[in-house]
Amino acid sequence: MEWLNLAVRWIHMIVGIAWIGASFYFVWLENNLNRVNPRDGLSGDLWAIHGGGIYHLEKYKLAPPTMPDNLHWFKWEAYFTWMSGVALLCVVFYANPTLYLLAPGSSLSGLEGVALGLGSLFVGWFVYSFLCDSALGKRPALLGFILFVLLIAAAYGFSKVFSGRGAYLHVGAIIGTIMVGNVFRIIMPAQRALVAAIAENRTPDPSLPAKGLLRSRHNNYFTLPVLFIMISNHFPSTYGSQYNWLILAGIAVLAVLVRHYFNTRHNSHKYAWTLPVAALGMLCLAYVTGPAQMPRAPEGAKIDYQPLPGTAIGGYRHDEPRPEPAPAPVEVAKASPGVDFGKVHSVIQERCAVCHSAKPTSPLFSTAPAGIMFDTPQQIQQLAPRIQAQAVVSQIMPLGNITQMTQQERELLGQWIDKGAQTN
Question: Cβ(258)–Cβ(277) under 8 Å?
Fold first, then answer.
């Protein structure tokens, strides 16, 4: 499964780079055409140098007098990106939905989670297409705002039943489906109609290229938010926060602002302010998601906590009872100069080292995920910041809480780290 994950992810990355690279290049090309006194029949041209060669590119207002024998179309990059993306969803989330897709204690079964995930892709496309074909299609700013609100609403809804990673990736999958739907259903038919009209010496229908242009512009602005979602699973401060849907909204706004500057800078730099605003926005997001801003129970506090049902190491579903009761929770240490590392070590070995070890005992992994191991006190101490981020603050680890880590145990780890993460 790990090698299948690697292969599909690599393919997805390769074809995604090809699609996004071509999209960015043609936007740049369109924005930098020399439109001063173009040759008859042209809307502009451009001279460029790359790789030791000089290129001369020309754009026709409509088409050349005679269509070329070889006309290159840009579509398979988009199609293969979507197909490999859906394959990646199947490998990572749908093959074991109770582990990676569903939030611990989710009211959905694994099959229901998969159905919701796949169904949301198609519902998202049809809602988007309906809005674009409505009167809103002639008011692009209002349409963009409504689409943004609907996508963030989807993120909020997903966060209630999916894991943080699952919620983010499904919002990204909805956007990706919209983007490839634009290519398949709108942009390519418009281009085929244009070529056919020219070949038949007919006047092309101007409404089709206009629709294609609108959808292409949407794809362009969707790109940076989708790229963030693709890498977000490496950053638990984003998807692991209880406000992950708001964080996604903030980053999406910043990404769209930055993209707008690069789309318009050929005319002027009046949107240059978006770059420092985006940088400041990222700093603000880093601050509000920092551990110091996250509430934590006082030392020695009694916490009335009932562990949520989770997948047991033996492979039981998250909504099935474990065959044996979970061990008694470790009590939170009272205020003292330090926290007993023996208790911390016991929690780490029971809840974390079953996967994160040189020889994992969990059947889910043959090697330690991401190479992180907690076999020795030195390794545990060195990785204390990651334990703080993933098990104490965001609480996204253990995955799906498969080892039934309790809130008292998380508090114990947090107190130990706060007091210096001592091992003696």
Answer: no
Q: Which two tokens stand for residue 393?
A: 């603050």
On the CB side of 267, CA atoms within 13 Å amount to: 8
Both tokens of 253, joined, read 């706004």
- Residues present in the chain in total: 424
- Give the ranges where 289-376 is alpha helix by DSSP (H): 341-351
Among left, alpha and beta (phi > 0; psi -120 to 50; other), residue 154 is alpha
Task: Mark 351-362 as b/e (b = at least 16 C-beta within 10 Å).
Answer: bbbbbbbeebeb
Return d(Cα 338, Cα 316) in angstroms, integer: 37
Tokens of 413: 């780890």
How far apart CA 385 and CA 417 sit, in angstroms, is 8
Residues with Cβ < 8 Å from 316, sequence gap 6 or more? 322, 323
In order along the chain (424 residues), what is the average pLDDT of each group of 10 residues?
90 95 89 89 93 92 83 93 96 87 85 95 96 90 94 95 92 96 93 87 79 88 94 84 90 95 86 94 88 49 40 38 47 54 90 88 77 88 86 79 86 89 84
Helix axes 164-181, 140-161, angle to 10 degrees: 150
User: CB 137: neighbour CB atoms within 10 A?
Assistant: 14
Phi, psi of 245 (to 5 degrees): -70, -35
Q: Report the C-alpha dihedral over residues 387, 283, 172, 73, rounded to 10 degrees.
A: -130
Task: Determine which helix (DSSP H) or strand (DSSP E) holds 76, and give its type and residue range.
Answer: helix 76-89
Domain boundaries, the chain: 2-35+74-289, 299-424
Answer for the pair 175, 226: CB distance below 8 angstroms, yes or no: yes
Say if CB 251 and CB 285 are below 8 A apart: yes
pLDDT of amino acid 391: 86
